[in-house]
């Protein structure tokens, strides 16, 4: 029997921060285990939009790191098994043409479009994204504890 590789996991920005900061209580056990397994096999993706969101959150004082935010991002993107997913023209356009209307945050639209384009499962606690996944339009893992 042919064994197919598991799908990559795209981390929503909040999940990326919590995993790298060791805030295990913020993430459900099953989601945390899935991220650790994907990391061990080099299947964790972080979108360019998440780097932007981290910068915005830090600039607004909504998150604080023990180091300068640029250094945190460099280290976080260099974590074992983590790969950077750039914002391609295809993803940018896909984000404007998602099936079913996804209202709200443009960053969420880009995350959804990225996951769909690269065939990844999006790990999130965002209820709107989870609802979108429940419609069968996106593969998701609920990171709610």
Write the layout of secondary structure elements.
Blueprint (H helix, E strand, L loop, with lengths): L8 E3 L1 H9 L7 H12 L3 E4 H12 L9 H9 L4 E4 L3 H6 L11 H13 L2 E4 L2 H8 L5 E3 L3
Please describe what this structure looks like.
The relative contact order is 0.21. Helix 7 links the parallel strand 4 and strand 5 (about 140). About 50% of the residues lie in helices and about 10% in strands. With about 140 residues, it is of the alpha/beta class. Strands 3-2-1-4-5 form a five-stranded parallel β-sheet, sandwiched between helices. The protein has a single domain (about 10-140), classed as Rossmann fold. The chain contains seven helices and five strands.
Compose a concise summary of this entry:
By secondary structure, the protein is of the alpha/beta class.
What brief labels describe this structure?
Rossmann fold, 48% helix, alpha/beta, 12% strand
N-to-C span? 35 Å
Radius of gyration over C-alpha positions, nearest whole angstrom: 15 Å
**Which CATH C-level class is it?**
Alpha Beta
Structural class: alpha/beta
CATH homologous superfamily caption: 5'-nuclease
* Tally of individual domains: 1
Helices and strands, in N-to-C order? EHHEHHEHHEHE
Question: In what range is the share of β-strand residues?
Answer: 5-15%
| Percentage of residues assigned to helices | 40-55%
Q: What's the story with the biggest beta sheet?
A: 5 strands, parallel
Poorly predicted ranges (pLDDT <50, ≥5 residues)? none
- Please tally the helical runs, counting DSSP H or I stretches of 4 or more residues: 7
Question: How would you describe the oligomerization state of the chains in this entry?
Answer: single chain
CATH topology: Rossmann fold
